[in-house]
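User: Could you write out the 3D structure of this protein bound to phosphoenolpyruvate? I've included everything you need below.
Assistant: Certainly. Input first, then the structure.
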Amino acid sequence: MIAIVLAESCTPAQHQQVLSAVQFTGSGLRAHTPHLLSLSGDLDRVTAALDGLSQVREVTAVPSGCPRAARLAGRDATTPVWVQDVEIGGPGFVVVAGPCSVENRHQMLTTAQEVRACGAHLIRAGAFKPRTSPYGFQGLGDAGLGLLAEARERTGLPLVSEVVDVRDVERVARAVDMVQVGARNMQNYPLLREVGRLRMPVLLKRGLAATLDEWLLAAEYVLDGGNDQVVLCERGIRTFEPGYRFTLDLAAVVVLKERTHLPVIVDPSHAAGLRGRVVPLALAAAAVGADGIIVETHHDPSVALCDAAQALPSSELAGLMDRLESAVASAGRFLRRSPGDRALAPVSGA
Ligand code: PEP
Ligand code: MN
């Protein structure tokens, strides 16, 4: 695929002039935005057809076929995504933390307050859970969304939560600040299309066995719907190695930084599978240049209904935040520790 980038100042007439110039040089010509076109064809032929047109900024091959997700020259390295007042992909490293799933009011509110007290920036927790076994805890559903809203009200922190079904997209989107598409749904194209209709941040996790191209094309589905607020999340892939839950592919972070302008965060928890392995993987993610991490924490992992073995108790989240500071600095970024330490009222009536 070939991408054609036009100048910001390009007029509709100049845009039309470009379309006419290239219409017979390839197939599948598309105008994604007023400044970005793509088509399939021969790069030299397309370049020659556009020779001398001053409104053309760049004509380039896009190897993975994702013109919207690709990092084209002339574009900033990373396009930040704002989740309320939290910038992902800017100079600050972002920490998302919280339980795997919303289990009950006491668990959700206590964990949320601990997450805030440790200085993390966003709360995660699933109300709808994609479980491998149909007999596993499937989440509280709409009741869970209600508890998430309460957690946000008490802490002031924005929420990230997963949607697993096209029929739930609107309700989840209304309740949270960032919608997560999980690994098992990375290639659920109707779901990606639906999430592409939203105008809010989306966290797109890598599929269990997805290549970088497949992952970027999944992001392209969301972007193609006009939702340009996509953050990628590396969470480990299935390999031949049975010694841990998934193989955390940190090389993916480095390569994605070359290939896409979308922010990239890392989930060390689902790769590690055991809490003792989460902190070193999180530090490594910061050191390779990830824009943030998403970690599972629980106020009492011994009673967690989902992914208990990998949940960090909150005392360890504070320690992780301390240790992240130097890893984040080594990658040229900073870690904001606010609002942090402010004591909140104890959870009552739970
Ligand atoms: C999760 O974040 O709880 C989750 C289910 O993650 P993944 O989709 O990466 O398995
Ligand atoms: Mn989980």
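The domain at 81-330 is CATH 3.20.20.70 (TIM Barrel).
User: Perfect, thank you.
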